[in-house]
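User: Please predict the structure of the protein below. I'd like the answer in structure-token form so I can feed it into my own downstream comparison script.

Assistant: Understood. Taking the following sequence of 229 residues as input:
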Amino acid sequence: MFKFLPRTTLIIVQSIWFALFLSASTYADTIPVPQRLMEDTSKAMIKAFRENTEAIRTDPNIAHQLINDNLVPNINFSLMSRWVLGKNWKKATPDQQRKFIAEFQKLVVKFYSKALIQFLSKNNITDDIITFTPFRGKIKGKYATIRSQVNPLNGAQPVKVNYDLYHSKSGKWQVYDVSVEGISLVTTYRSSFRQIISKKGMDALLSELENKNSTLNKSEADPLVAKKA
């Protein structure tokens, strides 16, 4: 089984998803729709995880359900998948495209929810773990970038995190990429997946994604309460 991300990049990308899961705003001026979306989603996630922290420590599936209910609807996995595959998207068959979207969504949700669960096994969520910065300028077209910073619990230097959102034809704003200190989640996965496709083909990538998701399922079988410091 290949490694999807280098360890150093993995740590950074995990920080990205902590930010996406747990962000909270600190100002109450007139807020553009995409920023309001991020704030409302964040507040709902914080409330849900605070109310269910102890339950999550004994049953990780509760975290998955909370994420699927509150976060997933606000991520455009179809667009994200297109960006991740790049030129290989058009080369894939419709069936391969559908399978990739499904498996990639599972990977993202399971992998980063697992990281969040491990975080909760030793820490409690605080309101100031991340703060949004006021939106710059005006929204133009179908794209918007929402900026924030992660405030590490150990008092280390804050980390800049940006969320890229797309306004779809349905009229909904959704996240399609997240970056930390200039490192894009989409770009990071694209580089890894492109290498696999060039060497083994799209079906091989789909197979490895399925295997990776299966492995993540097995690793979540044991509750984390015993690991709490």
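That's the full token string. Residues 32 and 137 are 10 Å apart (CA to CA).
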